[in-house]
Amino acid sequence: MKNRLLPTVLFALGVLFLFFPILIVAPMSFSGDRFLGFPPKSWGLIWYEAYFSDPVWLAATWRSLRVAAVSALIATLAGTAAVVGLSRFSSRWRAGFTGLMLAPAIVPNVIIALGIFMLALRFGSTDSEVTLIFAHAAVGLPFVVMIVGAAYRQTDPTLEKAARVFGAGPLRAFWTATVPPLVPAIAAAFIFAFFVSFDELVIALFLMGGSETLPVRIWNDLRFEINPTIAAISTFFVIVTALAMGLAEFLRARATRRQGNN
Amino acid sequence: MNQGRAPVRFQNVSRSFGSVVALDDFCLNIDAGEFITLLGPSGSGKTTALNILAGFDRATSGEVYIGERAVGALPPEKRNVGMVFQSFALFPHMSVFENVAFPLRMRRVPGPEIRQRVERTLEMVQLAGYGPRRPAALSGGQRQRVALARAVVAEPPVLLMDESLSALDLKLREELQEEIRRLHREFGTTVVFVTHDQGEALTLSDRIALMDAGTICQLDTPGALYDKPASRFVADFIGRTNIVPMDDGSHVSAVGLDAAPDKVVALSLRPEKLTRSPGPSDVRFDATVQDVAFRGATTELRLCLASGLLLRMSEPRSGALPLPARGETISAGFARQDATSLYE
After folding, report:
1. Who has greater pLDDT, B115 or A34?
2. Which residues in chain B are closer than 8 Å to A169, comparing Cβ atoms?
3. B337 versus B54: which is more confidently predicted?
């Protein structure tokens, strides 16, 4: 028993450290005070009301959801296609291209932001949701390649051969034999890519001057005044994110288990 | 159910990967309805030949015929063959029923007929009622039965089996061997079976093509391959045997034989052809017993001859003679015709 105490304490401290911001922010969001402070002196839902009735906040929220959804869709399609396509390459080319696709996860976002910003200036496409969508798709791509790639490596390559022998053409075999076992992983990858975009501030700051995404709105808001609306928004999205990430992890684990059993 | 079985012909098929020749001017005529096994060690070209027949690989030169049709340029889905894979290759997201129905759906067989044929085939592999289950919920043997059902459900004229039983343990393997023999009798399909397991090949095949280095060393019935191996490689690969090399003739005279004709390079003596009983054997020799090993139904003796040659001898345990002790000198013998001459 004694030798299990230390790991338990360390684990608890680790979890506390990770959850500390949430433990502070969540109570503050239910504050009835005019200003951000901890602990709140009175309680209420006024800041949630403020959020849901402010057209500027809501516009930013919708914009973020839109950008996240479309960029995640692009990243998922491109990433999945890349995983499957690269498996047909020789290992040298595959390693090279995979490295290239994982790069956005390693290169600091500020560098990516600067690069894309300069490129966008040239084409006059700054302050555009389309530009932001493609930038976010690039940043989400590594997660798709990693998640779908791991699932793909576990699938049996003879499945596609079997489909062919039993009468399916190349496309049919791909859709009936290769893709279905990957669906849970693809869904999980989409959710990850979605939140990569939804959380992203730096690139959006560079690209979106006039039309703010939610993180940009929060950033701009914090610079001028500190009010508990932000705590309410944060809490709301922590809950939404936790649920979605839980779902993604569930799908991923189920995909692995199913493959493993076969 | 014997309609639609086809002969298969490999005509001068070669396949090389860079400088490696996997299949070298490979020729093989397989009769309609025949069960033929491509047997050989890994790298012998047996899997390459099967892949070329299935359409997963293309010959560098030569042509393959299924029936009268040259299929070398056709994709796998146009060849109308069935196949059982070593890894089962069942679709994990489909039920057992849908797995077996797959070849029929691809051939656009109408729904009611699909149901009927799938159920009948599942019955044939003793899996009636397993239709709604997922492959993941089945044991290894059951999965391979599903794979068998899927391979035969569309009654393809040719059935390919790629190391189909190698992933299973011994008991299941023997069980499924019987099942495969029965299915072959019932469907009468031409079967091309690939394995490295000589026991399996002997049990299942009408004929065996023993392969090495991309060519066929010997093509014969299991009995002929066992009794009349053409070369040292064949004698050694099929069953267990004692090779008595010619060399200077000392080993041959140690087993009591005269020097053989010039072209013979060695003799093959099966362990079970050696006997200690004085009766029918017309060639006799003396040997020292090095070891006595219990093998269940048989006892195996290791004998050392005067020339230094080691021989394995296998005798039934019901033998009348008491077992010799280690180090004892015994007299043993064999019938002259059981010493097979090997020419290479």
Report:
1. B115
2. 75, 77
3. B54
In terms of residues, how long is chain B?
Answer: 344
For chain A, domain boundaries: 55-261
Residue A254: is its pLDDT beyond 80?
A: no
The DSSP code sequence of A192-206 is: HHHHHHHH--HHHHH
Identify residue B322 by its one-letter amino acid code.
P
Looking at the complex, does the CB of residue B58 fall below 8 Å from at least one CB of chain A? no
Q: Do A158 and B85 touch (CB under 8 A)?
A: yes
- The residues facing B310 across adjacent strands are B304
Question: Looking at chain B from residue 149 to 178, which residues have their Cβ under 8 Å from any Cβ of chain A?
Answer: 150, 154, 160
**pTM (2 d.p.):** 0.78
Residue B65 pLDDT greater than 90, yes or no = yes
The predicted pLDDT at position B51 comes to: 94
Q: Which residues of A touch B87 (CB under 8 A)?
A: 156, 158
Bridge pairing between strands B298-304 and B310-316? antiparallel
* ipTM for the predicted complex: 0.82
Domain with residues A55-261, CATH architecture: Orthogonal Bundle (1.10)
Closest-approach residue (CA) in chain A for B160: A165
State the smallest CA–CA distance between residue A169 and chain B in angstroms: 6
With contact defined as beta carbons under 8 Å apart, do A228 and A47 qualify? yes
- Encoded tokens for B9: 């012909």
Q: What is the C-alpha separation between A137 and A81, in angstroms, rounded?
A: 14
- Conformational region of residue A158, where left means phi above 0, alpha means psi within -120 to 50, and beta covers everything else: alpha
**Beta carbons of B269 and B313 less than 8 angstroms apart:** no
